[in-house]
TrEMBL record:
<dbReference type="GO" id="GO:0016491">
    <property type="term" value="F:oxidoreductase activity"/>
</dbReference>
<comment type="similarity">
    <text>Belongs to the asaB hydroxylase/desaturase family.</text>
</comment>
<dbReference type="InterPro" id="IPR044053">
    <property type="entry name" value="AsaB-like"/>
</dbReference>
<protein>
    <recommendedName>
        <fullName>Methyltransferase</fullName>
    </recommendedName>
</protein>
Amino acid sequence: MEDTVTATIRYAQRDATRNASEKPYILHYAAPEGFPQNNFTIKPVHGIKIRNLRTAGISYEEHGIQLASLKDSSQMHDAQKFDDDDWVESVYLPELHRSISEALGARDVTVFDWMIRKRARSFPIRNVGDENEDAHQPSLSAHIDYTTAELDSRVDQYFGDSKDAMLSRHYQVINIWKPLSGPCRDFPMAYLDPRSVNAAKDLFAVDEVFPTVANEVFQVSYSPDHVWYYVPDQLESEITIFNAFDSEKGQSLAVPHCSFDLGAAGSSGPPRQSIEVRAFVFF
């Protein structure tokens, strides 16, 4: 198993000619005729070295990324079970709760969002009529799911009257990702070491606009200092936990991430299916 692969990562481009008074945005629905779908550009950067997380020797405490195993993986080998929302809620999420608590030493876990992705074979083009054309697809641009301002609004939304009690505890916001079947070689996840990110230069806030809501995220600009990792041949029994916010450290350990194409090394397997979960963890 190679310790490093060379691949392409898609980065947002800073454009000095763009109207500085107009906040960057991207629409996640068909824009009205004559209205731009987005007002910034994402371009591929080739020749990025992506290291093997399994052998990297990094820690969650210092780098915000950790590979862990599900405590009871016996029910996780049937990808079709994840098509049943009730099964996910009643079986997978409780199992995930136990595994996260053990891996991070958390006292409690509150899941607030989860999503299944199923790659269409024609992705990223997505031909009309293609299987899984309408499913959530892998996210290809390097990003962080939340800005601090976005998380502040989420705390109000999710915790309401218990907000003050929640904020008095040490907590983190985390993402948990796993393939529904493994080994995953088709568009695996890449994780950017936050210690290699200059937040002031590399991150900028973007509004992701949906029909009924807008979420503020960070897009990432390229830097030669960036250090990337991935999990070769990740199994359905393995989860990658990565940080988005820490109540004591802020977003200094927030991990930018995206999917990437392994090329010929990933072409032999079926199109990727995966589940990602977002949660508050309390210590």
